[in-house]
Write a structure and sequence with these properties.
The protein is an alpha/beta fold and 258 residues long. It is built from eight helices and seven strands; from the N terminus they run E-H-E-H-E-H-E-H-E-H-E-H-H-H-E. Helix 4 links the parallel strand 4 and strand 5.
Length: 258
């Protein structure tokens, strides 16, 4: 087993969409920090393969479920409850996207993106509240981290056509702020708004070449796994217990330049 920082040893963390993309970057970082991690997404074969690959880093459990539905959320919560009486942190990372011209943007695609990116975040957080509260102590509150996007902080470039995605991520940021007030002081709720990271979702952008894309980013590069996992580890650690309701851009400076 790979030895990591150990800063999260003994913690139980749930990462939705933890089998690929930013979710996998986060999961690998958590495992290296000593956490036990539950990952969940719809595609069972891909999820279990990812869990098998990451098992060399630590204890990881794969729970296939459609987190855009109440039934899928119940499946995940039941699987966790069979093994644990507490959950120290929930990372709401699972997301859907759709691109189409405004005039032909499908209503079904709009609903699907909002159901996963917003409704699923709310309902899963709600369903895990008893386990999160069981983990919370006065000096170490439980944590919820919602993965938003810089597309929820400023309007995407015209022609990107990700109307439901950007609207959903803006909603995630506002939901984060509202939940932070409702759940304090037992549970800290923060959001991370990533910029460009090389993932399946950003493949069409990265196809232009990382060097060309990087010219649009003040720090002149795309995000790396440690950039996102490091922020997550900080937000789950002892140095963040006075932070709640924050939306933190991890974007190489893009939002600051707009």
């Amino acid at each position: 087993m790979t030895v990591g920082s150990g800063t999260l040893t003994g913690k139980v963390v749930v990462v939705t969409g933890g089998g690929r993309g930013i979710g996998r970057m986060i999961t690998e970082g958590l495992l290296r920090a000593g956490a036990t991690v539950y990952i969940s997404s719809r595609k069972e074969s891909d999820l279990r393969a990812a869990a098998g690959e990451m098992s060399t880093l630590g204890e990881v459990f794969a729970v296939p479920a459609d987190l855009g539905t109440e039934a899928g959320i119940a499946t995940l919560v039941d699987a966790i409850s069979e093994r644990h009486i507490r959950v120290d942190a929930l990372i709401n990372n699972a997301g859907a996207n759709w691109g189409a011209p405004l005039d032909t943007f499908p209503a079904a695609a709009w609903q699907r993106v909002l159901s996963v990116n917003v409704t699923g975040v709310f309902l899963l957080t709600q369903a895990l509240l008893p386990l999160l509260r069981s983990a919370a102590t006065e000096n170490d509150p439980a944590r919820v981290i919602n993965i938003g996007s810089i597309d929820g902080l400023r309007a995407p470039t015209p022609g990107i056509n990700n109307f439901s995605y950007s609207a959903s991520k803006a909603a995630v940021h506002m939901l984060t702020q509202q939940l932070s007030g409702e759940l304090a002081p037992e549970i800290l709720v923060n959001a991370i708004a990533p910029g460009l990271f090389p993932t399946k979702m950003t493949a069409s952008i990265m196809a232009f070449g990382e060097e060309a894309v990087a010219k649009q980013i003040p720090l002149r590069r795309a995000g790396r796994p440690a950039d996102i996992s490091g922020v997550v580890e900080f937000l789950l650690g002892p140095g963040s217990t006075y932070i709640t309701g924050a939306v933190i851009p991890v974007d190489g400076g893009i939002v600051a330049q707009r």
